[in-house]
Amino acid sequence: MRILVVDDSKVARAVLKKLLGELGYTDVAEASDGVEAMEWLDREPLDLVISDWNMPNLDGMGLVKAIQDSEVSDVPVLMVSSESYFNRIVDVMRAGAEGYIRKPFTAQTLRAKIAEVLKKREMSGDGSATLSGQLSEIGFPELVQFLTSCRREGRLVIKVAGQGGTVDLRGGDICAAEWGDLQGDDAIFSIAEHDEGTFEFQPASSRIAGNVSMPTMPLLIEAMKRRDEKATV
Amino acid sequence: MRDAKLTAFVEAACTTFETMLGIPVHADDYHSGTGVTTGYDVSGIVGLSNLGDADIKQGSFVLSFPEEVARRAVGRILGMEELPTLDQDVADGIGEMVNVIAGLAKRGLARIGIPDCRTSLPNVILGSKHRVFHRRDAQCSAARFSSEIGSFLLQILLSVPIGKEEPSGRSAPAGAEA
Q1: In DSSP terms, which residues pair with A50 in a beta bridge?
Q2: A182 pairs with which residues across the strands?
Q3: How far is A87 from chain B (nearest CA, A)?
Q4: Closest by alpha carbon to A39, among A3, A59, A63, A16?
């Protein structure tokens, strides 16, 4: 697997290369900004781009957009930044990044995020297929974001240590959710707290009556905020 | 009572050192007042705005190191004992470190009711025993850290933007002298 690390900081690139080496990824190329990264992508086959956000010439957001508009739009991008604001994270995911990782991070976090990005790529093949996997491989917000971006319709079944719940999507948007006794928005907030467990998405045309009050993206942002606040208290 | 804003940066620094360098650091000496002269050799500075009451507080976050501590810190980030010389790599590493600390501190600030703090790109000053000057009216909170690689200083400087001072307020622009 060949990975391109993009960061204007030589030290930051060296840190990422060191962490990737610890995870067994030794075929790692480097670029100091988005322009240099696009030059790499034009001439070499790459499997993953890990890019910083703030860079001169062409920043991380610009790079994501440039890749989306190019012939190598199938190369996934994992964005790395110290930026904490959820709306910025959502912006870059909407632009086409497959994942986002906040600095500082450990090799274990990086491993989980790379696995998540690769899982998303694996899932994006057949729109009618049942999808299943572990929440440790792809977090709930990222999973819903992926289903939303593909405008999938059907039921997502989540199981966590004896507890279970469902999230119904219509036209790619969350229309209903249940988690134990919780329904609607509260069910989503509770499901998003879990990073262990299993998921299965069953495609079907959904006629379930809606019980969520917020649009999907603000609902996910609120769920991520609450999860983050709970984790850091 | 310790300044809650300073606490957000101190906690962020502890987490960053633990994660990036793999070493614990301890803030064991706190100061507050109108300024602390460091006389250290390497300083990373990040500008802050949208801080605090009525959206008028701005300021800066400064992390200052003696040369050998900065070389050790960046060396540890890169998996070495220390870098041999004070050069661009040290500046690059300290810039990366203050950038990460500031980003992490914003999450702590959000928890104390400052949800939209803005940070500038980092600047790094290299110079033997340089001094960092702030506006005269800047309120300074500082924490001195100890660690196995040596001591360093974290400062938060807050002031009212120029043009919004009290009528009697006097100010001088920030700057550095090596």
Answers
A1: A5, A78
A2: A179
A3: 11
A4: A63
A156 contact partners, CB below 8 Å, separation of at least 6: A143, A144, A147, A166, A167, A168, A169, A199, A200, A201, A202
Domains of chain A, each with CATH number or no CATH: 3-121 (3.40.50.2300), 126-232 (no CATH)
The pLDDT tens digits for B18-66 are 988 989 999 988 888 766 567 899 999 999 988 766 555 688 999 999 9
Please write the tens of the pLDDT for every residue from A199-227: 888 888 767 788 999 998 889 888 888 88
**Confidence check: pLDDT of A10 > 70:** yes
Q: Sort out which chain B residues have CB atoms less than 8 A from A104's CB and list them.
A: 15-16, 19-20, 100, 104
- Count of other CB atoms within 10 angstroms of residue A13: 21
In the structure, what pLDDT confidence band is assigned to residue B169 with cuts at 50, 70 and 90? very low
Average pLDDT, chain A: 85
Q: pLDDT: is A17 or A233 the higher one?
A: A17
Is A82's Cβ below 8 Å from some Cβ in B? yes
Crossing angle of helices B88-111 and B67-77, in 10° steps, is: 80
Residues A27-36 have pLDDT tens digits of: 999 999 999 9
In chain B, which residues have their Cβ closer than 8 Å to the Cβ of A83? 103
Of the partner residues A12, A85, A232, the one whose CB lies closest to the CB of residue B96: A12
Closest residue on chain A to B111 (Cα): A229
In one-letter notation, the amino acid at residue A59 is D
- Identify which of B78, B96, B106 has the shortest CB distance to residue A84: B106
Does A229 sit within 8 Å of B78, measured CB to CB?
Answer: no
Q: Model confidence over A117-131: pLDDT tens digits?
A: 887 777 666 555 567
Q: Which residue has the tokens 């989540």?
A: A158
**Which member of A11, A105, A233 has the closest CB to residue B74?**
A11
Residue A168 neighbours by CB under 8 Å, 6+ apart: A154, A155, A156, A174, A175, A176, A177, A206, A208
Q: What distance in Å separates the CA atoms of residue B74 and residue B42, rounded to the nearest whole number?
A: 12
Q: Do the chains contact at A15 and B102, CB–CB below 8 Å?
A: no
